[in-house]
Fold this sequence. Notes:
Elements: H1 6-13, H2 18-35, H3 49-56, E1 66-71, E2 78-80, E3 93-102, E4 107-113, E5 118-123, H4 130-147, E6 154-159, H5 162-169, E7 172-175, H6 176-189, E8 193-198, H7 206-220, H8 234-255, H9 260-265, H10 271-278, H11 282-293, H12 299-304, H13 323-329, H14 334-341, H15 347-351, H16 355-364
Parallel strand pairs: 2-8, 3-6, 6-8
Antiparallel strand pairs: 1-7, 3-4, 4-5
Helix pairs in contact: 2-8, 4-6, 14-16
This protein binds zinc ion.
Amino acid sequence: MSTTPTTALEAILCIPPLHLHIKEEATLAALRLRAYGLWKDTNIGHTRILSKEINKCPQLDWICDKTRKHYVLDRHYKVAAEGGKTDKADTVVIEVYTDGSKTNSGTGAGIYCPELNINIAQPLGKNNSVFQAECVGITTAVIAMLNRKVKGFSININSDSQAVLKALTKHTTTSKLILDCHKALQALSKSNRVTLKWIRGHNGNRGNDAADELARQAASLRVAGPEPIIPIPFTEYKTWLHNQTQTSHSVLWSKTKECKHTKEAVPVLNPRLTTKLLQLNRPKLRTVVGMITGHCPLNKHLSILGITDSPLCRACMETEETPIHVMLQCNGVADKRAAHLGSSATLHEALGDLGGLLSFWSELGWLE
Ligand SMILES: [Zn+2]
């Protein structure tokens, strides 16, 4: 109903109020500008937004992978898709395998090369992505070969990450890690013939399996020193900020003195309820929202609107006809209530999985 308060609807649907949403977007814009090196904190007015948010969420101060667009115009190494013909090499071929892994405990990269005796399990932070781990895997492998002064070989670097290989074929990048990887590959290509090859993961290839195992070991290792070990993906900022907005929304909801009816049904923000509500069709959604907010065509609300004369319950004529009365207390509909809703003590309990509530009201037929 058009009288339903916005605050109540925002709480039911877990949509942050406009002022919180705008703050989140503005902080994100500031973080983006900072990543591009364009942010100036003058400590006056709106530029204080970042320091305020970092106070609340210190991770926002972590360096991120996003950078200004860089052009990659020369490339001395090759990137080959699976099945691509390998050059008939007149030199010895070295096969290197790299892989990345992410588990609940962290991310890690694995590098394996039997010819050069390279077995590296490199743990990365908890907040990094698989893409980043795969990318760092290749960079680490290249640096290990540079340190061993490998010269005059054909080197095949095998990775199962199509995304990273694709990023390395592009002419622009906004990722620091991809840029580092490119620079390392250029250095190795000066005195070697380097090819990046895509191989299907978990396909019985011994080298890939060994790299995968190393990456998984690395992901479960604890990293030395504080996070972040490598720059975090920009999307992490988004997740943190969004969680923070939701927390602020919860606090706001718990403090509000309005929407008493809604607060009885939804005492704390409940994303699971929101998901269930959004799966309902419009008439059902209208019923449930009416029950939660009290803004529905029952006598109490209709009499406030001046549509009926009496706010009294049509079943018992004893007290006001509100959703709380009908669903929890009214003796006039006790049998039907017991059949559909059981014996709920609170409005929150009566919501249940919404099925009982909907069948109860459709049997009563009072809302039509
Ligand atoms: Zn009654």
